[in-house]
């Protein structure tokens, strides 16, 4: 069986394929292959692949299935010991694969690993979508080593140690294929955004570990599909954050945490309104109402296994620490 499949889910990313696929292929060890799965692009991505990279395996989804289901459909057709889910707007570096595979080979309980993610445009700065490893607070707000909300640190090697993390970024996610399949893959209902946090939370609940390995470095453009200021992204992030909590919080914390999140999300909505971002204001309320309408569906997805991963959530509110106490950095243990 193939050791590693690096799988790119593409949607209207012909420009990124042209720019980043050739250097990716040059870094590929002999035990790995690249697979591109096209998510019903309306640009000339498929024609470009067939003309310029006929040796790269190309899969095609019949319609845009989003990030979660799009990857699930693709990975169901691939046999490999490890998968690497890689965004099309990622620039890889030399030797970005080997440190991760060596680490996973040596640690059987290690289910997923992410590289250090730096900004493609600001080369010495961490990138928003995963920085140097993801964490989450007890109210479901994600943050990273190197990134707390919109505060992005410069990379001075301060986080160059391998570390246990709560979630690994879906922008460049190495995962054991047997774990991926046993856990049912990504949750289709998330469509896009935060589905990797839900997946990581679930695999931590069954006792696996997740790490960041900064010896592996990639550069991410970010916002390749949905720009940061897109109201659809606002909707997905707020809705999926509620989905995440409904599925994974312990029973004794579920109701009170959701009530608090409803309040905080409305504060965020009016903050958008005061900044003149009316579409984002609407998107937050649309997210809350959509969650309320589908709440029972997500309660049904809660399983009976102990929610042991909750103990690894940061025990304080990152919202309070950042916006009230002006904390902007997290080193994996504490804020400063």
Task: Walk me through this protein's architecture.
The protein has 336 residues and is α/β, with parallel strands linked by helices. The chain has two domains: 2-220, Spore Coat Polysaccharide Biosynthesis Protein SpsA, Chain A, CATH 3.90.550.10; 231-324, no CATH class. Helix content is 38%, strand content 21%. The protein has ten helices and 13 strands. It has helices spanning 14-26, 45-52, 66-75, 98-106, 177-182, 195-205, 231-248, 251-274, 278-300, 318-324; strands at residues 2-10, 32-38, 57-60, 80-86, 90-92, 110-119, 134-136, 142-144, 147-148, 151-152, 163-164, 172-176, 209-220. The strands form three sheets. Strands 1, 2, 3, 4, 5, 6, 11, 12 and 13 form a nine-stranded mixed sheet that branches. Strands 7-8 form a two-stranded antiparallel sheet. Strand 9 (147-148) and strand 10 (151-152) form a beta hairpin. Helix 1 (14-26) packs parallel to helix 2 (45-52) and helix 7 runs antiparallel to helix 8 (251-274). The chain is globular and about 55 Å long. It starts with a strand and ends in a 12-residue tail after the last helix. The model has no long low-confidence stretch (mean pLDDT 95).
């Amino acid at each position: 069986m193939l050791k590693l499949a690096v799988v790119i889910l593409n949607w209207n990313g012909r420009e990124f394929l042209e720019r980043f696929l050739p250097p990716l292929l040059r870094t590929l060890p002999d035990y790995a292959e690249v697979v591109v799965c096209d998510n019903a692009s309306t640009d000339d991505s498929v024609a470009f692949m067939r003309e310029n990279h006929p040796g790269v395996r190309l899969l095609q989804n019949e319609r845009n299935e989003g990030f979660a289901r799009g990857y699930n459909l693709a990975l169901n057709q691939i046999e490999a010991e490890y998968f690497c889910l890689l965004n099309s707007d990622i620039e890889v570096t030399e030797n970005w694969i080997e440190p991760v595979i060596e680490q996973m080979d040596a640690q059987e309980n290690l289910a997923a690993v992410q590289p250090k993610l730096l900004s493609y445009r600001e080369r010495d700065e961490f990138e928003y979508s995963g920085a140097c490893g993801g964490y989450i607070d007890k109210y479901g707000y994600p943050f990273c080593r190197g990134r707390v909300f919109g505060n992005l640190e410069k990379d001075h090697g301060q986080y160059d140690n391998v570390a246990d993390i709560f979630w690994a970024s879906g922008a460049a996610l190495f995962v054991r294929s047997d774990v991926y399949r046993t856990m049912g893959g990504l949750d289709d209902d998330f469509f896009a955004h935060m589905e990797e946090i839900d997946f990581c939370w679930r695999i931590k609940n069954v006792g696996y570990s997740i790490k960041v390995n900064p010896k592996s470095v990639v550069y991410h453009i970010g916002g390749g599909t949905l720009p940061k200021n897109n109201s659809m992204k606002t909707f997905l992030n707020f809705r999926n954050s509620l989905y995440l909590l409904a599925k994974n919080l312990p029973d004794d914390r579920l109701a009170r945490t959701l009530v608090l999140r409803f309040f905080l999300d409305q504060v965020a909505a009016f903050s958008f309104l005061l900044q003149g971002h009316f579409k984002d204001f609407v998107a937050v309320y649309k997210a809350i109402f959509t969650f309320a309408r589908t709440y029972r569906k997500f309660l049904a997805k809660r399983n009976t296994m102990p929610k042991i991963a909750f103990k690894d959530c940061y025990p304080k509110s990152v919202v309070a620490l950042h916006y009230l106490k002006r904390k902007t950095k997290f080193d994996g243990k504490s804020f400063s």
